[in-house]
């Protein structure tokens, strides 16, 4: 998922190349040579996601306290040397809960992105490649799914599967699959009429082979980049579901649930336990969006051969 | 690689331009570097006098378009230039915003290759033609409208007043190019820069557009800078030509001298590579000559009715195997109609019959929308024929293959090389892998043996081991088309269909690919169906030729005979439309203009029809494929 692989060489070299000798006298005011802004913001975004991933994996070693350890001696404490980000209404260390919360914040969206991408690509490929009535039927199914608010699907899923991480993940996978499917469908439908596909047919290759072995790999990077963008939205929505009590259940540390639990403290003027997880959600969503857009730009610019 | 430009100024002419008025356009020692330091133009000098037509000839990447664009101050972003570009005395490169706009309005008009890309599809033709006058020159709406009508008349569009209310999509490519010419003329520029204005058009439409251009240039006394890759076109049109290669002018002089007796190596190669209709000296060949492949050639140019009859006769081809040679490819009375929702059905191919003897090459000639590509797609099994029968080596190949066995059998019978090598190769798959895939599908070979066969196939088409690992993106157009040919040969088909296989390539590359096809035919005895809009290329490759128009075969016969003594009016129109160097005809300009004028009223409507028909076929095909699969 972490896109450190092959940032295109031309893409990397193109931008610094602009800072060459001024071409005309008209442009005399030149900024000092520096890294292009996109590179800087991309590096920060990658750093955020990497830090979050490490925090999730090594949470037991990084967290100063047990996230569930209650300490009534220090309820709603402010930041201090002992508790860097203070404690919540039950005296639990906010930093430790934040670190452990990265686990569900990472795992949930990851599962949703993988599942919705797999499901969406499958449906989109069938619709786009076969066309005809299958395409028409699937298209209407997607329309209906778009019409359902994801919250409604989530509530239905909770009713079916009970509370916990499973129900929201299934619900989100279902509500995000149509986005992926529609993109895949349009890409496949365009690709299907390309001469190279006709060339494969003339060579005697079967339709299924062409679709799965040749067309699918050609469109996967674009769909993948789009799915990366979905990651951020899913994270925010999952946090929202937890906040409403439909997701991860207490006492498990989860950013959405943390905001929920901190509501009582807000009235008493203790903002920190609510603000810390909220800021974490915003920072990660922005970081993931930056990465996703950068990926889309690079891959999108590459595909027309 | 810095040969001194071979300058062949006529001394008298040089004296005139030097001593009297400064040239209308004068480019001196122009260099252009991209922002990353790559030098694209290496000291270009050229001039255009008032009333003169100057050709700028070269292949893709020679810098000819780049040079022409500097005339209007259109430079790549961040480009650095040295030298001067003077347009009517004003220095374009030094000009600031307001002065540059003034130069673009009054000094020079430009006509681009693709008229559809250069016009706003949401605005009417009237808006397009009048906005420059209304917004920049402050004309009243009525005056601008009157002027627009006058210009549309000048470019010989039939109903100027109605056209003003029409949108670009209602026009064919040729009509739209006329609109663009009218647009370039609105502000009465003194220089007209034409950047491959007819390359995207059919040959008959090209002749009409060239007619309009020469007429306007003459009547307005403009200078014209005409950029083209087509030597014959330059020869038929221009007083002087500059030949460009690799960002340099390698030769210049009077068109006749340069193209008849080229001095620079590059020009010589270019001239040699350019296929021509010439050589088919009239009187030398009569249509009774059988040609290399006797039986089909002996048949006269036929009208459609007799074509149908003769096609039906040998229909039961397999039976007479003992009697006479079975043709390798035999399509009998094949038809294809595309049904469209809520619109008239399009009859793409109507009762077409073609025959190619074993080892022969048949050319299929026609303009866009003539059904030649549909015929090819039916033969290779991408489309099913509605009626008729297609046999290859006596085996039934009429329907679209279903199932693995049929697919592979069909593929072994016939392979195809597509028009655009940039689109017909999978961008993700390396050249070696593409060929290997085809090999392994058809011959169950081990990976080691596959590797060696891939290399030998690549060598046969003039590529090497290093190309095997290359993705299409890193290969040139010619290299890609060689890969496509190698891929087709890997399957060892009985028949190779080449659908406009060289029309996307530069002339010199085209010549190499045509040589390659020749060699493969000699070595392998391959049977070729060669589809092209270019009569000169067909002449170079094919013994036999059929001419298609609107889905019907209107004429067929021995290629040389057909070109020398065309029987059908349409064939004659096609041949007359091919640009010929001025010195071949008695009066070059006159002839071209006559062709343009003669074909005007009727021919133009035809052009529009054909074009809409072509897009209709494409549309119907996509619709149909959506339903079929």
SSE layout and pairing:
The complex is a heterodimer of chains A (305) and B (629).
Chain A: H1 9-17, H2 37-57, H3 59-62, H4 94-130, H5 132-147, H6 150-161, H7 166-192, H8 195-203, H9 207-243, H10 255-261, H11 263-267, H12 272-302
Helix pairs in contact in A: 2-4, 2-12, 4-5, 4-7, 4-9, 5-7, 6-7, 7-9, 9-10, 9-12, 10-12
Chain B: E1 6-8, H1 11-19, E2 25-33, E3 39-48, E4 53-57, H2 64-70, E5 80-87, E6 90-91, H3 97-107, E7 108-111, H4 125-136, H5 141-154, H6 160-163, H7 173-185, E8 191-195, H8 203-220, E9 223-228, H9 231-237, E10 240-245, E11 248-254, H10 255-260, H11 265-273, H12 294-297, H13 304-312, E12 329-340, E13 343-356, E14 361-365, H14 372-379, E15 387-392, E16 395-396, H15 403-413, E17 414-417, H16 421-424, H17 431-442, H18 447-460, H19 465-468, H20 477-490, E18 495-499, H21 507-524, E19 527-532, H22 535-541, E20 544-549, E21 552-558, H23 559-564, H24 569-577, H25 588-598, H26 600-628
Parallel strand pairs in B: 1-11, 4-9, 4-10, 7-8, 8-9, 14-19, 14-20, 17-18, 18-19
Antiparallel strand pairs in B: 2-3, 2-5, 5-6, 10-11, 12-13, 12-15, 15-16, 20-21
Helix pairs in contact in B: 4-5, 5-7, 7-8, 8-24, 8-25, 17-18, 17-20, 18-20, 20-21, 25-26
């Amino acid at each position: 998922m972490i896109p450190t692989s092959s940032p295109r060489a031309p893409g990397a070299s193109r931008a610094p190349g602009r800072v060459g000798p001024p071409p005309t006298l008209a442009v005399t005011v030149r900024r000092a040579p520096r890294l292009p802004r996109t590179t800087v913001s991309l590096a920060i975004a990658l750093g955020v996601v990497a830090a979050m991933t490490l925090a999730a994996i090594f949470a037991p070693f990084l967290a100063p306290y047990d996230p569930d350890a209650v300490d009534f001696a220090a309820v709603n404490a402010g930041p201090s040397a002992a508790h860097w980000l203070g404690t919540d209404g039950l005296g639990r260390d906010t930093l430790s809960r934040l670190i452990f919360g990265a686990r569900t914040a990472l795992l949930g969206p990851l599962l949703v992105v993988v599942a919705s991408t797999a499901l969406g690509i499958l449906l989109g490929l069938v619709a786009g490649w076969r066309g005809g009535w299958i395409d028409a039927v699937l298209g209407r199914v997607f329309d209906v799914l778009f019409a359902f608010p994801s919250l409604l699907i989530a509530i239905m899923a909770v009713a079916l599967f009970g509370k916990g991480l499973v129900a929201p993940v299934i619900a989100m996978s279902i509500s995000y699959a149509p986005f992926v499917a529609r993109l895949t469908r349009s890409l496949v439908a365009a690709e299907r009429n390309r001469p190279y596909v006709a060339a494969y047919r003339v060579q005697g290759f079967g339709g299924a082979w062409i679709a799965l072995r040749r067309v699918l790999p050609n469109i996967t990077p674009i769909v993948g980049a789009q799915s990366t963008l979905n990651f951020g939205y899913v994270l925010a929505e999952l946090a929202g579901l937890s906040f409403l009590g439909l997701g991860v259940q207490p006492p498990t540390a989860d950013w959405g649930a943390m905001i929920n639990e901190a509501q009582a403290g807000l009235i008493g003027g203790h903002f920190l336990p609510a603000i810390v997880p909220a800021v974490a959600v915003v920072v990660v969503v922005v970081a993931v969006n930056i990465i996703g857009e950068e990926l889309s730009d690079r891959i999108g610019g590459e595909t027309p051969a | 690689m810095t040969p001194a430009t071979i300058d062949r100024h006529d001394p008298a002419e040089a004296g005139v331009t030097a001593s009297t008025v400064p040239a209308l356009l004068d480019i001196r020692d122009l260099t252009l570097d991209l922002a990353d330091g790559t030098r694209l133009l290496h000291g270009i000098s050229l001039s255009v006098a008032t009333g003169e037509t100057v050709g700028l000839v070269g292949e893709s990447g020679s810098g000819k378009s780049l040079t022409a664009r500097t005339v209007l101050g259109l430079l790549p972003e961040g480009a650095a230039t040295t030298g001067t570009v003077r347009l009517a005395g004003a220095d374009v490169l030094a000009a600031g915003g307001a002065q540059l706009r003034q130069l673009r309005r009054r000094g020079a008009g430009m006509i681009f290759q693709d008229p559809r890309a250069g016009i706003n599809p949401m605005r009417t033709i009237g808006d397009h033609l009048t906005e420059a006058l209304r917004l920049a020159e402050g004309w009243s709406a009525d005056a601008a409208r009157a002027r627009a009508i006058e210009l549309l008349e000048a470019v010989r569009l039939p109903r100027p007043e109605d056209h003003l209310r029409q949108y670009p999509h209602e026009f064919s490519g040729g009509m739209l190019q006329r609109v663009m010419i009218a647009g370039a003329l609105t502000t009465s520029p003194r220089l007209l820069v034409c950047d491959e204005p007819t390359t995207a058009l059919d040959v008959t439409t090209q002749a009409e557009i060239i007619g309009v251009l020469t007429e306007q240039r003459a009547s307005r006394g403009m200078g014209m800078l005409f950029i083209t890759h087509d030597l014959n076109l330059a020869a038929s049109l221009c007083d002087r030509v500059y030949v460009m290669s690799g960002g340099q002018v390698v030769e210049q002089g009077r068109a006749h001298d340069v193209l008849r007796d080229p001095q620079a190596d590059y020009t010589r190669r270019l001239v040699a590579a350019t296929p021509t209709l010439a050589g088919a000296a009239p009187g030398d060949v009569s249509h009774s000559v059988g040609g290399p492949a006797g039986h089909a050639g002996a048949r006269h140019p036929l009208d459609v009715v007799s074509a149908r009859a003769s096609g039906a006769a040998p229909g039961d081809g397999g039976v007479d195997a003992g009697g006479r040679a079975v043709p390798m490819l035999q399509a009998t009375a094949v038809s294809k109609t595309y049904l469209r929702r809520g619109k008239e059905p399009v009859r793409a191919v109507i009762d077409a019959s073609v025959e190619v003897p074993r080892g022969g090459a048949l050319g299929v000639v026609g303009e866009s929308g003539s059904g030649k590509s549909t015929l090819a797609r039916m033969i290779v099994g991408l489309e099913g024929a509605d009626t008729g029968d297609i046999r290859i080596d006596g085996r039934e190949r009429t329907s679209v293959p279903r199932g693995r066995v049929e697919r592979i059998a069909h593929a072994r019978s016939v392979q195809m090389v597509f028009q655009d090598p940039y689109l017909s190769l999978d961008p993700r798959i390396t050249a070696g892998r593409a060929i290997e895939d085809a090999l392994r599908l058809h011959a169950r070979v081990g990976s080691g043996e596959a590797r060696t066969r891939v290399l030998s196939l690549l060598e046969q088409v003039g590529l090497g081991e290093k190309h095997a690992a290359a993705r299409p993106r890193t290969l040139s157009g010619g290299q890609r088309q060689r890969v496509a040919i190698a891929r087709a040969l890997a399957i060892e088909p009985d028949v190779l269909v080449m659908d406009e296989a060289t029309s996307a390539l530069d002339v010199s590359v085209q010549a190499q690919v045509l040589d390659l096809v020749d060699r493969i035919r000699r070595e392998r005895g391959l049977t070729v169906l060669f589809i092209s809009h270019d009569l000169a290329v067909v002449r170079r490759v094919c013994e036999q030729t059929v001419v298609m128009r609107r889905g019907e075969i209107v004429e067929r016969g021995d290629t040389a005979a057909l070109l020398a003594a065309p029987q059908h009016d349409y064939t004659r129109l096609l041949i007359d439309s091919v640009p010929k160097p001025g010195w071949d005809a008695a009066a070059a300009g006159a002839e071209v203009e006559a062709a343009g004028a003669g074909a005007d009223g009727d021919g133009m409507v035809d052009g529009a029809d054909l074009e809409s028909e072509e897009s209709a076929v494409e549309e119907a095909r996509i619709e149909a494929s959506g339903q079929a699969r």
